[in-house]
Design brief:
Layout lengths: L4 E6 L3 H13 L5 E4 L33 H16 L7 E11 L1 H14 L7 E4 H7 L1 H4 L6 E12 L1 H10 L8 E4 L4 E6 L4 E5 L2 E10 L3 H9 L6 E7 L3 E3 L11 E4 L11 E5 L2 E8 L3 E2 L9 H10 L3 H12 L3 H11 L5 H9 L11 E3 L6 E7 L4 E2 L4 E4 L3 E5 L8 H16 L7 H9 L6
Parallel strand pairs: 1-2, 1-9, 2-6, 3-12, 9-20
Antiparallel strand pairs: 3-5, 4-5, 7-8, 8-9, 10-15, 10-17, 11-14, 11-16, 12-13, 13-14, 17-18, 19-20
Helix pairs in contact: 1-6, 1-12, 2-12, 10-11
């Protein structure tokens, strides 16, 4: 596939395209190739049908520690600032958001959360009673228990697939040798004296620096090259339900999150406006184990088993989850959500925590909506590892970035661009001042 490249990026989702954009706009690196196996970009995890379309800012996500909040906010702010320069309003949309606490224990928890983060998020408010009912009538209608929420008008819904296209095609740097290769499947990567050779169905690509940003296949490639053997992958499929009022309208106007149990590694149920279907509310995600690289693609199940095998360390981690008093019932309940006949009824009971008056006719299974997220496993301790991970090898970077990795796409690209510039050496440089001026300042989430 032509000349030696300075950089090859494997994966055309929001993480890979963000790096492609940052290298083009904020470095003097030349000869960069973005490789994507599908006919178009962002067909998997970045597809807005397969994720919750949320820009995670760290305020209403109660599972983020106070120490992590500034980092998460910075990452979200970069995306929000990027979007502020775009004419395409359908990529990012402002929307209210809240985390809902039900009963005295959860209300105390979100009150303490508010107290700990309000200096970082001055727009965040504690609301209850009539004010909460005014903001979200369906959240309070027919509610018998006490409820309160942390609320802000400063939320964002993001179509990460459209954002990926903006990153990739919003920068015209063909004069610098920036190219995109679609329908190009990577079969193998081999280390060479000067970098790596990437073997594809369309020929070989040689590159001095390689970045793999292709979800769990990043970890598979890392294992093949001798990196990241302390990590395993637990594939979790997520489904959603659509909800509407009897008049065919969305049930809520805000992103309504529920309190996250710190012991659960999976997302708590939430209700979201759908950026592609404004007349619907999307409830979810559910979570069930499904060994595959891609949803709705049986061939990738065989590929997943072939790459990761029957891993005893991952099996031990799953066993610990099943017997845990918190995660065991959670996994069992989520398995029921997809069951014929009773699944909808069981899910309805859970969704009523957000909308108490929800009736069976108000929700239906969102067919074809929801993808696979691969939870990383610490194989040494047989526990679930971090939600995001990066493995840096000799001239190669592997990004494993499930949720909230999409939120971190530009922050991750900033870090990878600096690593690449350092690897390739003088006279290459990263223009930090321009990056901060365009994407970090001013703070859109203040």
């Amino acid at each position: 596939m032509g000349k030696m490249r300075n950089v090859a990026i494997v994966g055309g989702g929001v993480t890979g395209t963000a790096l492609y954009n940052v290298l083009a706009e904020y470095t003097n690196v030349r000869d960069v190739l973005l490789i994507e196996q599908h006919p178009g970009l962002a067909r998997l995890n970045s597809n807005s049908k397969w994720n919750s379309q949320t820009l995670h800012e760290g305020d209403i996500e109660t599972n983020y520690s106070r120490d992590r909040v500034p980092q998460v906010k910075d990452a979200a702010g970069l995306v929000a600032n990027y979007a502020s320069h775009l004419p395409e309003t359908q990529i990012v949309r402002r929307c209210p958001k809240m985390v809902l606490g039900v009963d005295s224990e959860e209300i105390d928890l979100i009150w303490n959360r508010w107290d700990s983060v309000q200096d970082v998020f001055p727009a965040l408010r504690f609301v209850e009673g009539k004010e909460l009912a005014l903001l979200e009538p369906k959240v309070m209608e027919d509610r018998t228990e006490s409820a309160a929420a942390l609320y802000s008008n400063n939320g964002y819904a993001v179509a990460f697939d459209k954002l990926s296209y903006s990153f990739a095609y919003g920068t015209d740097k063909k004069d610098k040798g920036f190219d995109i290769a679609l329908e190009t499947r990577v079969n193998a990567i081999e280390k060479t004296k000067d970098g790596h050779v990437i073997k594809t169905n369309k020929g070989d690509v040689e590159a001095r620096a390689v970045v793999i940003s292709s979800g769990t296949t990043s970890l598979a490639f890392a294992h093949r090259l001798g990196y990241g053997h302390g990590l395993g992958a637990l594939p979790v499929a997520g489904n959603f339900y659509y909800g509407q009022t009897d008049r065919g309208e969305a049930l809520v106007r805000s992103k309504v999150y529920t309190v996250q149990n710190d012991k659960l590694p999976f997302a708590a149920l939430h209700a979201d406006p759908d950026i592609n279907a404004p007349d619907k509310t999307r409830f979810g995600p559910t979570a069930r184990l499904l060994p595959a690289f891609e949803r709705y693609n049986a061939r990738t199940s065989l590929e997943f088993v072939r790459e990761f095998g029957i891993d005893g360390d991952v099996a031990l981690a799953v066993g610990k989850l099943l017997v845990d008093e918190d995660t065991g019932p959670f996994i069992a309940r989520n398995a029921l959500y997809d069951a014929p006949f009773i699944g909808k009824r069981v899910f309805l009971d859970e969704a009523r925590k957000i909308v108490p008056a929800l009736k069976p006719q108000n929700i239906k299974f969102a067919k074809g909506v929801g993808g696979i997220r691969h939870q990383l496993v610490d194989k040494r301790n047989h526990t679930l590892g971090k939600k995001e991970a990066k493995v840096v090898g000799n001239g190669i970077i592997f990004n494993m970035t499930p949720s909230p990795g999409a939120t971190s796409c530009l922050q991750n690209a900033e870090n990878d661009a600096k690593t690449i510039v350092g690897l390739l050496g003088d006279p290459l440089e990263f223009d930090q001042a321009a990056f901060d001026r365009n994407l970090r300042l001013p703070d859109p989430l203040a």
